[in-house]
Each structure stands twice: as C-alpha cells, then as structure tokens.
C-alpha cells in the first residue's frame, strides 16, 4: 500500500444479524445485516474522526466477504485483505437479539472455522506497517486459532521493529477461552505492546490484578513496561497512566440505543486524538465522548464525526486531571 498510514488494525469481522427490536430470533421473519468486529470497529471510528486507517484480515471470496469490504470502505477504511476459497472457508456471523429487562440482550456466535483462522502474515500487505503510526489489535484475535495467535504475535513484533506504537485492547471473551488460558496468551504478547486498554473487571478476573483502577494501572505498567495503560471502569469512567502521571476521565451521559461497540468507539476516539497530536488527557476525553455517541447509534460501528465529538466535549463533563 502506498502512502502514509496513521493506523493499521488486524482482526476478524463478522456479519451481525439482528431481528427488529421486540422480536425473537425464533419467530422473526426479517434480520438486519451489518458488519461488526472489534478491530474493524476501531478502524471505522478512527477513520470517521480523521485518521487514515487500514484493516488487515482474511475473508472468503464470496458475496458475504465482499459485503464486509464494501461496508468498511464506505466509512473511509482502506482494506488489506487475504481472500480465501469460498468452497473451503466461511465468514463468521453473530446473532444479536435486543431485549430490555428482565430478558436482556442475547448474543449467539457462529464463527467456527472462519477464513481468518488460517491467516498468515505472508498473506497480508504488511508493508503498510512501515509507514504507520499505530498498530492495533485485541485479545479476541489470538483466541480464534493457533494461526491467528501466531500471526498476531508476528505483526506486533514487526510493528515494533518498524517503530510503530502498538496498542492492544484486552477484550476478553469468555465464550472463546477460559481466564487461565487467556492470561497466559496475553502475557506472552505484552512484551510487544506499548499501550494497553483493559477493563478493570478483566484486569481483576483474567489478569489477577488487585486494587482500584489506579493501582491496577501502576501494577501492569511496572510488570510489563507498558508506555501507557488505560483502565476503563464502566459508569465510573476511565483512568490512564503515562510517565508516572495519572489522568482521570468521567463518562458523558447518553441515551443508550445500542451499547455494542462502545468499547471500540472509546479506543477509536483515543487513538484518533493521539494521532492528531493530542495529549493523554485530551485523548481520554475524546474516547469518552466517542463512546457516549456510539451508544446512540444502532449497529457495531461508531457512525460519528469530529464535530459530534467536539460538541460533546465542549458540553457538560470533561476531564479531572
């Protein structure tokens, strides 16, 4: 790929199939179809906020694979994709059934043996890493197969050798692996990570870290020599640690229409602001604003603009440094 790239992400994107709100999967006669995947969600959010973003993955060379590409490109994301034989590979899907209390929202995954589970670095346009500022992936990707775990490690290492800042969102998924297995895999990757995003809950339950968010950030930075650690705390906001300094950010109030993808929007807002030269505190503020805005939008993708974020940031709330 020619030209300077701000952000490269790597991971699986699936098709999300959802019945209309209030209907059940077992009785609905219609399904809404959208693309969704943690790393492509981040690429879309960052691209919509002004970053030049590229998404790496592997897809079946089929109408479903091309549907994913078309949707991501429509939001300004460039794609570096390996195409697989549709006769021997497939695209993962997931079914999302929205439900209010007391039923709640239900997610059913159908992603086994997806094309990405066979991806190798040689199939991807890794030259894009040489001109990138950031490389981002998540803890979902190495859980998909031994091959994706190996490729994740190789790409993180290559990004480091190219002087690229490497960010990693823990994004633990209990439906993919148990905490003990996940922790061992994550800790092997941490030597290749510069910026870590981790929910406080996962830091405690998966990484076995004690204390509040500030103590967790200090402990992880000390143990694994991260440049930056961002610990999210749900409705309590987030904290970031860099160069020994702690930054705190509250949440911006939002009417929740669809919470799926909120964490990815947070990361996208953070990375977009850092890529634009923003300091840590400003990046956290953009992250919180992007996350709040995403909750008002249906689907996985944060269909937002810089003006949207600025209007939230300039309103009530803000950063407590």
UniProtKB/TrEMBL annotation:
Domain named Carbohydrate kinase PfkB: residues: 5-299
Identification of the protein by name: PfkB domain protein
PANTHER family noted in UniProt: 2-DEHYDRO-3-DEOXYGLUCONOKINASE_2-DEHYDRO-3-DEOXYGALACTONOKINASE (PTHR43320:SF2), SUGAR KINASE (PTHR43320)
Keyword set, alphabetical order: Kinase, Transferase
GO molecular function: kinase activity
InterPro entries cross-referenced by the UniProt entry: Carb_kinase_PfkB-like, KDG_KDGal_kin_Halo, PfkB_dom, Ribokinase-like
Protein family according to the UniProt entry: Belongs to the carbohydrate kinase PfkB family.
């Amino acid at each position: 790929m020619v030209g300077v790239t701000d952000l490269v992400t790597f991971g699986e994107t699936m098709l999300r199939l959802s019945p209309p709100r209030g209907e059940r999967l077992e009785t609905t006669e219609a399904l809404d179809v959208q693309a969704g995947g943690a790393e492509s969600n981040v690429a879309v959010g960052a691209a919509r906020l002004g970053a030049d973003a590229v998404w790496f993955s592997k897809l079946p060379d089929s109408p479903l694979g091309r549907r994913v590409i078309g949707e991501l490109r429509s939001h300004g994301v460039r794609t570096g994709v390996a195409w697989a034989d549709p006769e021997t590979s497939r695209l993962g899907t997931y079914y999302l059934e929205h439900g209010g209390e007391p039923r709640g929202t239900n997610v059913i995954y159908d992603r086994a043996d997806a094309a990405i589970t066979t991806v190798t670095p040689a199939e991807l346009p890794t030259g894009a890493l040489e001109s990138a500022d950031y490389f981002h992936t998540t803890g979902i990707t190495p859980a998909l197969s031994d091959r994706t775990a190996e490729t994740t490690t190789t790409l993180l290492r290559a990004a480091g050798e190219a002087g690229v800042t490497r960010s990693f969102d823990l994004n633990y998924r209990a439906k993919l692996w148990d905490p003990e297995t996940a922790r061992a895999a994550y800790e092997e990757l941490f030597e290749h990570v510069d910026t870590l995003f981790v929910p406080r809950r996962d830091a405690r339950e998966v990484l076995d870290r004690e204390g509040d968010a500030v103590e967790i950030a200090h402990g992880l930075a000390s143990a694994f020599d991260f440049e930056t650690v961002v610990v999210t705390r749900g409705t309590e906001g987030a904290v970031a640690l860099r160069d020994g300094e702690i930054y705190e950010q509250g949440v911006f109030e939002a009417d929740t229409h669809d919470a799926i993808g909120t964490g990815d929007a947070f990361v996208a807002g953070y990375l977009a602001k850092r890529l634009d030269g923003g300091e840590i505190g400003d990046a956290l503020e953009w992250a919180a604003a992007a996350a709040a805005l995403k909750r008002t939008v249906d689907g996985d993708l944060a269909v937002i603009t810089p003006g949207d974020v600025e209007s939230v940031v300039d309103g009530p709330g803000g950063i407590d440094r």
